Amino acid sequence: TPGINDSMLRFTNDETGIRVALGVADAGVTKLKFVVFESLANDSVNLRHTLASLVESFGEAVLGSTVVLATKADHCEDKLRVKRLKKLRDIAARKGIDQVVLWRNEDVSEEEQ
Length: 113
What we know:
Blueprint: H1 13-27, E1 34-39, H2 47-58, E2 66-71, H3 78-94, E3 100-102
Parallel strand pairs: 1-2, 2-3
Helix pairs in contact: 1-2
């Protein structure tokens, strides 16, 4: 399914937001939960932009129904992983999101969770 920052360039971020919002409205859905994926192994953090796109499509209330899933923890060094996870938690907290989940591909220390 295409999503924000679609790597196959099928849709722009705006088109993706419109398609999802229309699909949700057509289905008559009354409750939603959004999962935003953010790779800890990437050089850049796209979370702010992704959250802005969600808000643009669904309004500020969407942030209360959003979970950030931090992926690829096993693909970066321990110090960098801790630093990037803190950054994601800080960004999420500023937007009122309290659910940042570390995806565990391999063992990750309890301190980082």
